[in-house]
Amino acid sequence: MPPKKVIEDSESEDERVVHSAQSNDKYQTVTKKRSVLYESSSDEELGQESEIMTDSSSEHESDYESNDIDDDNEEDIESRFKKIERKVLEKACINKESMPNQLIVHTIELHQFKSYRDVCTVGPFSSDLNCIIGSNGSGKSNIIDAICFVFGFDSKDLRAKNLAQLVNNQTSNTTNDTYVKISFHLINRESREKLDWFDIERRIKSGELGASHYCITDNTGSRKASKKDVKQLLTKHGVDFDYPDRFIVLQHNTVKLVKQNPNEMMSYLEHLFGTDQIRDEMKKIDIEISDSSKQLENIDNEKQSILKDLEIIKPKVQQYEKFVSLKEKAEKLSSELEVAKWRYNSFKLKSFKLALGSAEKDLSKLQSDLNSNQSEKNKLAKKHLDLTKKLEDTEEAFDNLKHVIKSHQKSLAKKKATLASIARNVDEVSQNLKKLSDKIDKSKDEEEKISQQIQTAEKSIKSDQNQQEIVERERKALTEAISQDPKMQEYRHTLEQVQQLREMQDYQSLKLKEQKHFAAMQGIEAANHNISMSQHEAERIATEISSIEHQEEQLKNDLEKSQQIIEKLLAKHRELQIAKDQLCQQQMVCETSLRSINEHNEHYRFVRTVHELSKQPSSGCFGTLSDLYELKDEAYFDAVNSALCPLLKNTVVVESRDAALKIVNFFRQNKIGIVTCEILDEVSTSSRIERFIDESELIPMMDVISCDSPFRPLLFKHTNNWYITSNISTAKKYSRSDHKMNIVTLNGEIFKSFGEISSNAVNKYSSSLSETLIRSKSCSKLLDHTKDSSQTERLLKEIQNRMTDNANSIEQNRKDLEDEEALVRINNVQLYNFKEKKEQLHKDMDTLAKQISNYKLELSSYYEITSQTTLNAQEEQLLSTYRRNISTLEQMLDNYQTTSIVQHFSKLRN
């Protein structure tokens, strides 16, 4: 009888099988219901679906028939073996499909290993079943121990305390090493053809009995390896080191295996074939089946409603089938398109390769162009100096222009002040003219009064003449009476005497009157002469005033023109200032372009000299790091360039220290630039990376860069303690840890071990990690340099032409300003003269007004004298002519004054 524990395990297994059988019965009832529903439908498609479902149900029934149990809940061992066999066959089929090739042991070579003293070769083995037959102590188990020794088993599993006990103790020569070498062949499972081979050797050196060394030999050659490398190589070809008892049974386990009961043997075989891991999955599957049966019942209820909708959906299904066919055609067309694109890209690659070849040919031409560009650069530098000098001259001219404009502005302000004073003087003249007109009006009133007095005097003179006639008549009558009367004659005689006496007195008085009258006539003539003279003087003053006003207008126009010219000059000055700023900006752009050209030329010269030195075998130069390193994946482009940025610019790899000194002297003599030499002979050969981190989060930088084997130590030196991560959070996490490591993200953020953080430190020559990019970008850079140099030369010529044009315009503006200054000076002198003339005219007008007032007084006195005296007809005629002349003079004066005043006021208003 088996142990109690085994019986309990079998009972749990029986319960599981019963539960699965119950679920199987439920599934059968569900499938029956589904088949009944399908039989009820008359459609052909539904009939096809029912056939498929019944087939599937029969398959399920056949699957679950193998899981039937007895009434006593005891599982038959044969059924369990069949079940395990089926699982193992399924697993074998899966392994066959996933791994079509098989790894076999071909030969085993032993030397001084345990019982094998000399070199012994076991094999070749067959690809099928192999048996090793021999008597006890012949060394059968030692062959298995040799295989375990090569596979890296511990010494206790090889029936030895340590590695020294594995060495044959009967050997006399202790200088030879103990080793076991197994030759593996990789063959095809079906055709049994040999596809590949490799040898694994584990050696115990004679002087180092406590250590062993591995060596792997394949098509590429032999190389030292570690235990980890051996395990990786074997697991790659299907050897499961996690469960070693699945591919080898050690000697001390054979007794246990033989003594096992059936259940223990069954569990061992399940562990051996890996079916014990399926139990949990089976339980999960049973639970899923129960859940799916419930879902199937719900689906059957929904099926009836769906069947009714199927007839309605049939035309849509047909449309969908058409759509599916069209979709398949579209997918075929898209695949054909992808093939065409691939062909086009391959053709494009070929054309690019041809273009690269032509670009390499053009490099030699561009080198000669670079030398010519250097001479042109020197010329441009000289032109730049000339332009700076001209700019300084233009700045001085601008300063002079500013001073001239300021002086003109001051002179304009003075002119405006003089114009304001002239306007005030004109206002004063107009006021004086108004006063004169008032005085003339008063004189007119006085003349009217005088004329009235003259008329009254004339009337009195007429009345006196009438009285004289009457008196003469009386006198004649008296003379006749007196002539007749003697007494009267005596009286007449006495009267005559008296009359003579009176006539004598009258004669004297008449003489006096005549003298007075003559003096009055002379005074009138003098006054008339003075009035005519004042009239001429007034006309002259009027003409001078009109000329002064005309000149004032001309001066105003000239001032307006000069203001317009000054505004134009200021606008030109602003335009010239803007042009100057633009020229300064263009000059800065030219300087930056020249600087970039110099930098590109220096870098290209550095790369060219390094390539030329690397082509010479005696130089000992291998090239730059960008020539020797190559990225495995473009995804790490920014990260690698950010980390190695300081080394990519001027680092050269050389063979020895002498070669480094030669290259440094060569660079110093030819003045090429700074160079850093990495001496390959002095770099330590250890390239072991500590794998203490999770490689899913951090990737060693050394794993993403490939190079030739001689340069691996140099790559280890440059990328040691450098790791790449995809996000910043992991970089922060590991940068704070105790491990001293430098971390860089895929975007180029760097986290140094000593706490420094930098971002986007990608080198401007970062494309140098790819040789094709170097060549294409160097060609494009050289073309850009030539274009930039021609563009800068053209820009400098344009700037020079603009500077000359600006200098000419500035000179012309300066001349125009000098002419304007001369005109303004002349106008100022004329204004000063006109001002003096106006003042003199004002004085003359005052004197004339005084003379006119004096003349009026004299006239009034003369009028009084004439009113007292009686005048003859001739004297009256003279008086009347004088009066008419005076009235005409006054009218002329009034008309002239009114017209001149009106014109003056109209001009002032304008």
UniProtKB/TrEMBL annotation:
Stored InterPro entries: P-loop_NTPase (IPR027417), RecF/RecN/SMC_N (IPR003395), SMC_hinge (IPR010935), SMC_hinge_sf (IPR036277)
rRNA-binding as UniProt keyword: no
Any one Gene Ontology cellular component term annotated for this protein: nucleus
Signal sequence coordinates: none
Domain RecF/RecN/SMC N-terminal, chain residue ranges per copy: 105-242
Composition-biased stretches (Acidic residues): 64-75
Residue ranges occupied by any SMC hinge domain in the UniProt entry: 619-734
Keyword Coiled coil: yes
GO terms, biological process: chromosome organization
Identification of the protein by name: Uncharacterized protein
Organism: Naegleria lovaniensis (Amoeba)
Taxonomic path: Eukaryota, Discoba, Heterolobosea, Tetramitia, Eutetramitia
